Amino acid sequence: MRMSDSNTKAVVGIIADTVLQQHLVGTLLADEEILVPVNTSPAQFTTEAFNTPVDLWYVDLTLDEGFDDFLDLILEAVDVPVLIGDGQAPTRNSDEYPRWRRSFLGKLNQQLALARASTAGEAPLSVGRPKLPPLPLPAVLSQLENTPVPQSVWVIGASLGGPGVVKEFLDALPRGLPVAFVYAQHIDASFQQVLADTLGRHSAFDVVTAAEGAPLGYGKVILAPVEQEVRISAQGRIEATGKHWSGPYQPNIGEVMMGVLRRFKEHCGAIIFSGMGEDGVQASLEYQRCGAQVWAQDAASCASSTMPDAIAHDGYCSYRGTPRELAQRLVERLAQEVSPKLG
């Protein structure tokens, strides 16, 4: 999937699982003079479409028709951003349509701008990267017993281009790794459950959306909610605050990082993956002061490296690597932390 020529009109590919959604979104984009070379359903999508030059793909799966494998394919094969839809659009003559149209075009124009900006000076991602087996679990880590409250909790932060590389990272981690994750991904709330299902399909980790009272635990990834801020209780459980996240994007990665840091101090860490903006920079300073680790994805493997670059530029990042290299580093660090305790 190649980026279109930046001097031409914007080009968007549409993949929606209802004919009505294809029609409504396709007509709206045509009205805005945005080119739509592909407008199809997951069932009719062909591998030839991967060769279509687009600025981004718009994916809207409103039905539960077992399209998890298809979503896996998209997230793993794309080298341009994917914008996930908000669900079925209202009809053009409905009272809700003007509001939906403004919201949709706002997000689309923002993502198109980010997509074009993200190509400046960055290497394209490889299409169809070969699947590699999970990393081996060090023997020293297999001796650990589970604890009511995890002793190691890491934040995963990502935005534009995040889901695919985070999936690659999680797929590389071995079963039995003594770490819990809280994942903050800038995304629409309607896509969170689909994201959780997709990320967990080939991973040793259970990926779940946040629920009131849900416990953090080894082998678990909890998706930070989009709708409201959460905190971590003394018992290591998710607690809703009833407050909205601050900032333009939700969930706020920096606030998620600070919530985990306040509870777990130096026993936590954060990994910042692909994304635009500087979400997490200030929180990374606090991690550094507390002795907690902050790592970032390397620029060459990012769809957009602005966010991890910002962390590294300010001197708060102690390691950068590809998703699999980050997974390897985490396995090694956890083994190093455990060895003195068992010795």
TrEMBL record:
It comes from Aestuariirhabdus litorea. Its EC number is 3.1.1.61. GO terms for biological process: chemotaxis. GO terms for molecular function: phosphorelay response regulator activity; protein-glutamate methylesterase activity. PANTHER family: PROTEIN-GLUTAMATE METHYLESTERASE/PROTEIN-GLUTAMINE GLUTAMINASE (PTHR42872), PROTEIN-GLUTAMATE METHYLESTERASE_PROTEIN-GLUTAMINE GLUTAMINASE (PTHR42872:SF6). GO terms for cellular component: cytoplasm. It catalyses: [protein]-L-glutamate 5-O-methyl ester + H2O = L-glutamyl-[protein] + methanol + H(+). The keyword Zinc does not apply. Residues 148-337 form the CheB-type methylesterase domain. This is protein-glutamate methylesterase. Keywords: Chemotaxis, Hydrolase. The active site is at residues 159, 186, 279. Pfam families: CheB_methylest.
